[in-house]
Amino acid sequence: MSKSDFMASAEDMKEQLGTSLCLAKWQQVSLHLTTGMNNSCYHPPLHEIDPGVIEIKPIALHNTEHKKKQRKKMLAGERPKECNYCWNMEDLGHLSDRHYRSGEPWALEHFDAIKDYSGDEDVNPSYVEVNFNHACNLACSYCSPQYSTEWGKDIERWGAYPTSTPHNAPEHFQGRRKPIPVREHNPYVDAFWKWWPELYPSLKHFRMTGGEPLMDKNTYRVFDYILALPKSDLHVDVTSNFSVEPKLFTKYLATVKELCTGEKIEHFMQYVSVDSGIAKHAEYIRHGLDYERLEGNVNEYLTKIPGRNSLTFIITMNNLNILGLQRQLEQILTLREMYSITYQRVWFDTPVLRTPSWQSLQILPPAYYGILEKTIEWMKLHRMEEGSDKFTGFKDYEIQRLERDLEWMKKGKKLTKDYLQKQRADFYRFFNEYDKRRNTDFLETFPQMKEFWQECKYYAEKA
Fold first, then answer.
1. With bands split at pLDDT 50, 70 and 90, how would you rate the model's confidence at 387?
2. Segment 190-218, tens digit of pLDDT
3. Which of its termini does the chain have fewer beta carbons within 10 Å around, N or C?
4. Is the pLDDT reported for residue 291 higher than 90?
C-alpha cells in the first residue's frame, strides 16, 4: 500500500534533519503558566521560566536560556539528553515524534531559516500549547496536584500515597512546583497576555490544556479575541475531559460553533482525553469521569458544530487501558462511519505513559503483550483501503504508532528483576490506597488482572 502524506513527510524529514535537529525546539512550546514552567513538547522535562526576564521581555516565556542551550546542541549535531524519548524510538529503528512534528507545515516552513541559526535567536513559535489554570473536576490516577485541584484536595486531606518513594507528597509541591491559585496574581499569565498581540500573527496552532480549560476564564478570553480578530490560517485546539457540568458544556459548545462558522479560523480541533472504551475502566483510571456524559457530549459536538472541525481522542497508553483499547478503537470506527462524510473528523493518538512508572506498560508480564498484538492485527484488518473515498479505516501511521508502543512495552523484559518487583509492589500500594480514598475496587473493576494484582500484593507485603 502507498504511504500517507503524513508518514511520507516524516520519512523525508528523517533525511533532512540529520541525527539531532528538531524544529519543535524553535517552533513549538508548552507553557505551564500555573507554575512558570516550559518545555518545547511534552517529552522533555519541564524547566523554569525566569520571572524577572519576562517582565521586560515576554517572548522569554518561550525563548528561555535553557532552551537556547539545547538548540545550540542540536545545531552542533549533539543529541540533548532531555529528548531521549525520540532518540530511544529512533535507536529502535522507528520514526519518532521529532520526524513527525518537523514534517508538519507549521514547522517545515521554518526549516531553511532554522538550520542556519546560531541558537541565540528569540523566535515567535507557530505552535503554542498553554495551561492557564490547574482547576479540574477529575483526579486521574496518573495525574498530580500540579494539574488538578481535585488531586490537591486529595493530598491536602490524606497526604502522600505510600509508595516506595511517597507519591504526590505535599512537600514536593512547594516553590515552583506549587500551582498559583487562580485568584492570586500570576506573573506568567500577565506576561502571556502582554506577549499575545505579538505572538498572535505568527500562530498557526494554538492549543489550550489544563486542568480543565472549559472551566477557565482565559479560554473564553482567547475565543473572544479570535472572534474580534479572525485569523483564517489559525488552528485552534482545546483538550478536555468532556465531562463537565451540562450548563458549562452548553456555553462552550455555543462559542465553538460561532468560531467554526464562516472563515474566522482554519480549523478547530477538540481533543478528548479518555483511556478505555470500557466505561468502568475509563472511570476508574480517570476518577470523577462520567463516561455516559462524555459519550453524549462527543456526539453532540460532532452533530452540532457545522464545519471546520474535528475531534481527537487522546488515549494515554498505561497498564490499565489495554484491556479496553480495542473496544475504544471500535467505537472510533463507528464515529468515523457516522460523522466523517467529506473529510476525516474523528482521530486518535496513543502516547505512552512513562510516569508514574508503576502504571507503565513495561511492568506488565509478557502474557499481556498478546492483548496489544491482537489489537494491532485487528487494526490491520480494518486498515484504510488505498484510494478509498471513505474515512473509516485505520491509517498507516496510526498502526505504526501502536506498534511502536508495543515494542516499547516489550522492553520491559530487559528490566532488572529488582526494578520490576519494586514497581509492581508500588502498583499495589498505590491502587490499594487509591481504592480506600476513592471508594473504588480494583479487582471488581479489573477481574481479568487478578493474578497480576496478587503478584503485586505479594511483592508489596514481602518488601
1. low
2. 999 999 999 999 999 999 999 999 999 99
3. N
4. yes
Buried-exposed string 34-66: b where 16+ CB fall within 10 A, e elsewhere: bbbbbbbbebbebbebeeebbeeebbbbbbbee
Among 27, 10, 223, smallest CA distance to 132 is for 223
Joined grid coordinates for residue 11: 520519512
CB atoms within 10 A of CB 460: 21
Q: What is the average per-residue pLDDT within 340-367?
A: 95
Q: Which residues does 388 contact at the CB level (< 8 Å), separation at least 6?
A: none
Residue 377 CB-density burial (10 A; 0-12 exposed, 13-18 middle, 19+ buried): exposed
Per-residue pLDDT tens over the stretch 157-196: 999 999 999 999 999 998 888 999 888 999 999 999 999 9
* Strand order through the sheet with 127-131: 47-48, 37-39, 28-32, 127-131, 205-209, 231-240, 265-273, 309-314, 346-349
- Do residues 161 and 433 lie in contact, with contact meaning Cβ atoms separated by under 8 Å? yes
Give the pTM: 0.91
- What separation in angstroms does the CA of 168 have from each of 146, 159, 296? 10, 8, 33
Residue 157 CB neighbours (<10 A): 8
Beta strand 205-209 with 127-131 is parallel
CB atoms within 10 A of CB 176: 13
Q: Is the pLDDT of residue 433 over 60?
A: yes
Task: Give ∠ CA 39-241-331 in degrees, rounded to 5.
Answer: 115
